[in-house]
Amino acid sequence: MHMSDDRYDFTLFGATGFTGREALRYLVEKPPAALGRWAIAGRDRRKLEALLRDVAPGREDIAIVVADSTDPESVDALVAGTRALIHLAGPYARYGELYIRACVDHGTHYVDLTGEIPWVRRMVDAYHERAAERRVKLVFTAGYEALPFDLVTLLAAQTMRERHQVGCRRVDIVAHATVPSGTGAGDMLSGGTVNTLREALREGPEEGADDPAALIAGDAEATAVRDRSPIVVAPWHDDELGGYIGPVFPAPFINPPIVLRSAALFAEAGAPYGDEFAYREGTLVGPSAGHRVAAEMLCLAIRGMSGVLAGGNWLRQGVLGVLDRVGPKSGEGPSEKALAETDYGLRARGLGPAGEEVFVSLRAKGHPGYRSTARMIAEAGLALAFDQEQLPEIYGAVTPATGVGVAVLGRLRDAGVEFEVE
To answer: Is the peptide bond before 235 cis (omega within 30 degrees of 0)?
Structure first.
């Protein structure tokens, strides 16, 4: 295994993309001494140099590495040269495996933003055991999907054990956001996200894309998880959590498999969330009859999107054509106003076997999908580079909760994300 001492502490790959630029802007605000030796990477040296002149003028401490996803040798050299890789250049299903394989080969920890659960499943099947043997952490889906949901669930389960000495039988989470006035549809998506959507439209639906147990290894356990914790795209009502609740938008199929994999990995490690653990999430709409209608509309939108992805080739091509005409291009994304003034929160209730309750909440500053995501994944990458002694001793193809765990909460405070046990 390549383990020379001249490796970078971490490398930010995909730095010229929209989220990559956000992550770089955040990192250069930190004292250089806190970042060790590090690099930004991408396939175009001139673009990387221009990015540094723009975002970090005069900074001599940030190296540039050129790597192209279509050139395996350059990918191997990039990964061999760093202790932790923050990978921000999707779609991962097309190019991601090269990086995963190289990370396992070279003992490099890895974190990404993928929401492509069927691809994650393929990586679990192919690399989990070897990565675990080599004590490498491959942390998937560490942006707004699914890091805050995963960590809030972990905190609820830990709090239940500390307060009531029992496990959680279920955790329910509701998300809410405050969006500035004047925010348009274009402030919701970046070019990178749209590229991932394009890929899904080109390829058609993948087996297991809506399976809560997609990342559970054993057949019997996966069947049990599906039975007790299905993903249901329907509104629900809960007075304690604020009224009518719709699905998590835009993708209700990403967080549950990650959270349920975390529960399975912690159970394997001897720290189970609880017997028969189940998970449910949604978006808080509000308490009135009008909010009930809005929750129904959210469900219709999600079902419509799923219908398009599962639809005939002609339907997918039609939507692809519209996206190509009006969607943001690579490197484009929400306005500065939307990035800075959008805030969000989560509230979780853990339920014990005899009705015991605990509540955990999270408040975060910045657009969840871009500004906050970029800052959270940057901190997760720094935790992989510098905090290994404090992180859970769970290795392989892991999740935010099992990869960085509650040890990252202090770092996330710097990123504008505050957790509170009520």
So the answer is: no
For 216-251, what is each residue's pLDDT tens digit? Answer: 999 999 999 999 999 999 999 999 999 999 999 778
Q: Strand locations in 165-293, DSSP E?
A: 170-178, 236-238, 243-246, 278-286
Distance CA 171, CA 151 (A): 12
- How does residue 1 score in pLDDT terms, banded at 50, 70 and 90? very low
Q: How many CB atoms lie within 10 A of CB 233?
A: 18
pLDDT of residue 185: 60
Residue 235 near residue 292 (C-beta atoms within 8 A): yes
Return the closest-CA partner of residue 403 out of 392, 417, 412.
Answer: 392
Task: Give the dihedral sign, CA 130/134/140/146.
Answer: positive
Which band of pLDDT confidence, cut at 50, 70 and 90, is reported for residue 2? very low
Q: Is the model's pLDDT at 3 over the cut of 70? A: no
> What are residue 143's DSSP bridge partners?
146
**How confident is the prediction for the chain on average, in pLDDT?**
92
What percentage of the chain exceeds 70 in pLDDT? Answer: 96
The structure tokens listed for 211 are: 């399976």
- Look at residue 4 and tell me whether its pLDDT is greater than 60: no
Between 11 and 210, whose confidence is greater? 11
The CA distance from 138 to 211, in Å, is: 21
Beta strands in 46-104 (DSSP E): 62-66, 84-87
* CA-to-CA separations, 226 to 59, 157, 217, 218, 244, in angstroms, rounded: 51, 20, 13, 12, 24
- CA gyration radius, the chain: 21
Determine the Cα–Cα distance for residues 409 and 252; give it in Å rounded to an integer: 24
Pairing of strands 396-398, 137-139: parallel
Q: What is the Cβ-side half-sphere exposure of residue 280, based on CA atoms within 13 angstroms?
A: 22
Q: What is the 3-state secondary structure (H, E, C) of 270-329?
A: CCCCCCCCEEEEEEEEECCHHHHHHHHHHHHHHHHHHHHHHCCHHHHHHHHHHHHHHCCC
